[in-house]
Structure of glucan endo-1,3-beta-D-glucosidase:
Amino acid sequence: MDCPKKSFLFMISCIILLLNYNNGGFVHATTNIGLNYGLLGDNLPPPSQVINLYKSLGITSIRIFDTNTDVLNAFRGNRDIGVIVGVKNEDLAALAVSENAVNTWFMTNIEPYLADVNITFITVGNEVIPGDIGPHVLPVMQSLTNLVKSRSLPILISTTVAMTNLGQSYPPSSGEFTSQAREQLVPVLKFLSQTTTPILVNIYPYFAYASDPSNILLDYAIFNTDAVVVQDGPLGYSNMFDVIFDAFVWAMEKEGVKDLPMVVSETGWPSAGNGNLTTPEIASIYNGNFVKHVGSGKGTPKRPNSSIHGFLFATFNENQKPAGTEQNFGLYYPTDLKPIYKLF
Ligand SMILES: *[C@@H]1O[C@H](CO)[C@@H](O)[C@H](O)[C@H]1NC(C)=O
Ligand SMILES: *[C@@H]1O[C@H](CO)[C@@H](O)[C@H](O)[C@H]1NC(C)=O
Ligand SMILES: *[C@@H]1O[C@H](CO)[C@@H](O)[C@H](O)[C@H]1NC(C)=O
């Protein structure tokens, strides 16, 4: 979510239940929970302090959006924390031209940290598929994959995609990709399938809810009910996150991509910026329940035996993002590292 979010509308028919904020309890970080570490603020603490925060929370996976030198230098020697780094969207066109260009990028941006930093994934672009530069993703992924394989490096090569790839998402079993996604995403998914490398997906029930708050049940959007709200054949859903996740699984299956793991590279809920839909209380319930969902080890109704790995967006409120909700996804205030609400 480096760029403004497009809101996407899920056609969801709903029952309105009473709002029920009874679930903001204490939750512990689990090893399947990571945090996004966005850097679009002019008041962020130095990376060394941020690493201490992660250690105090027991967070062992983080994601940055590029290969920021200050951050990666600070991670030297902290190999117990896995770091997802990214190829910047604006670099993709030049890198797609040749394997040599990619090798040079790697020598400059990754090689210097290999010995000291636990780089787990390189994401090739953030939410560029579907879109104008989407076609550059696959060639860059292929070059990077060749490179890490030839050197037996334990780094996975993937990309992060938004749910704008879904043309249909409700009910989950009718999930299918848009025609542009079919052109740009499906070849990427087939490539990832060859090595069972996860696709990284950004899933934001908040944007679906905010696009139609009078018709979508808040408790369903924030995992705050155990009641089945959506029945899809034999599968019952009580939360919107699982519906969106499984719609993507169904859409992949319809393209012949079965059993490809999905990692949730971003999810979250803003604590301000859109009136009473974005309060610290609601954000705390959503994020706290997401942590519990992941910590339960349970998957989604369609993939009940695959536990979810996910990264909350984001560590800090970022004041250089567009005004409004975009600046308010953080769990912590950047200036004093105090929590905006209790989560971990
Ligand atoms: C690197 O990070 C991953 C993900 O957090 C973790 O599973 C792995 O144990 C870490 N590697 C080392 C050497 O600690
Ligand atoms: C927000 O306020 C409106 C108008 O008072 C109300 O109808 C709605 O239920 C409120 N939503 C939440 C999530 O509190
Ligand atoms: C999940 O695991 C259970 C118990 O091993 C098994 O019966 C079931 O078929 C599995 N479900 C799926 C969708 O793989």
Residues 179-194 form the longest helix (16 residues).
